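note to self: dont lose this again. the chain is below, predicted strucutre after it. 640 aa total, dont forget to put it in the shared folder this time
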Amino acid sequence: MKKGSERPQPPTGAKLWALRAFGILFAFFLLGIVEVSLRVLGVAAPEPLVLRKQQGAFDAYQLNPRVGLNYFPSEMERIMPQPGFQLFRAEKPAGTLRIFVLGGSTTAGFPYTAQGAFANFLRIRLEEQMPGTKLEVVNCGITALNSYAVLDFVKELRHHSPDLFLVYAGHNEFYGALGPASRVAFGKSRFWVDTIRSIMDLRISRLLSQAVQKAKGEQGAVEGQTLMGAMVGKTGIRESDPIFTATLEGYESNLRGIADAAGDTPVLFCEVVSNLRDQYPFQSLCGTDRSDAECEQFGESAEMLDRELRAAFSQRERASVEETDQGEEDVSPLLERAESLVREQPDHAGAVYTHAEAALLMWLGQPSPTGLGDASEPSAAKAAPAAILEQFTRARDLDAIRFRAPSQINQAIRSVVEGERASSGGAAPIGLVPTESWIDARSSFGIPGNDVFVEHLHLNLFGADEVARAIVHTLRESGWFTRQFDEAGGELPDPTFEFVMEKAGLTPLDHEIAERRAFHLVHRWPYPEDRSATFRSARPRIVQQLAQSFIDHEVDLAEAHFRLGEAWFREGRREDALRELVVACEVFPVVPQRFLLAGRLALESGQTDLARSLFERGAALDPSDADLANWLARSRQSGG
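---
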């Protein structure tokens, strides 16, 4: 064969590796061009936290209802949580104190909307305690988001002139978006979470994800599930589980990141609280020496004892109300059974819980050791022995379905705050709200239960207001806003709970929404499943219909209040109509015609000052509206 006809040999050795490296670099170069092009064109951009909203003279930012798409897979879009209607001025007015409140569902106000959240009660209390100070308390809480999202939000909100970041987050660290035990986890370690998030944030990745979801069609994977059920990836989490350790490490790292991202803006971290006294653990685990069948049998014994103890509590309460001695039966046999269960399985959450219940019941039947009366009096001032509180706390910490934050979460908060203060020589603008001890002190027997919570961890209105009180107390002690507090020339009296509720803007529609949400939650996993349970309400049908329409995302909150106001107006219930219309204007103050209707009704009711304010705000939204201008003139004439 001639030399010129020999077949070319493929490259080998260094030449081969050089060609491979060139191919890889060229591929990355092409991907880079595509990524830059997508960014320039604005394709597949992540959702911002805030959107600009301009209407007439009104220029503000609104929380983006679609920001959850950055954290939840698109198949969850039907049940994806959204922030409440929260707005703040694009340009912060001079002298305004702007507070951003961040966290998960408790911060959002669940089962209420933002009007029933501690952030709203904080605003009311600060307005009374800081007369003359303009306040913007912006509730950025979103259900099922955790400290990863809070850190993202702080990085964005620091560009909007904050005066304070207030963080109440910790319950969602296991199962919230990006939580190591959730279905949307990106890995256990913080390194892998950050790495995968960086890849997923690329426009190419987002575009491919959208295409895949479009090909898959509708979101059937979460049909019929609550958000709680849809988010859980792993249960049975012991304190020794690597996921437990990874969750705490990620949380603490995020808290430090939040403090760093805030810069010179003060940050207040709130301890998180949950129902201890009236919440049986969702999942209890036995020691490894027990089979699943043996553990199940043991768990049934603990649950049976729990039912007997609850019956004994109910009997004691009835006896107390009826002033009889029928509730004074000997409970020592129940305590002995509980002690036996704990000796057999000391780390079984249900057993530890029943032991705490029995100890509390035993203590309630004893005379007060101080001689100040009977310990059975349900007064927050009469706290049970610390050992009983510790047992209830331990039962919560052993619960292997990690919806309630374990004690290590609050320990992490305290550690970060103390560490930041120490490293700065006490100069770091960071503080701690001692929510845990504050709520303990205001709970019956000093143990938080159904007197503070709606279910396992969401605060009722009283509990939410107490958190707001704790925050105000901490702010006073911090010294950050001394001028604003002292502007009135001295410390003003603390507003009562009744005063706060009157100012909160809650109507029967809000209560209906909250009760329906709570009912639905406690009849789905991890609570005992009961899909046949039917919510019953004594409120008017129109209230029930609008509440359910809001829950089903068929109408927004402002529209629901507005429609209810129109319904009451047609029925001649003018006072109720005005209340709903005013709330609709406050929830989403961007629709001129709502201000017009509310103002006319206020004027008709003789509330001239309110009418004038409503007309002025409506006219600012649409200066060309002749009706608003005319009615504004009438209200000014009526006012003299």
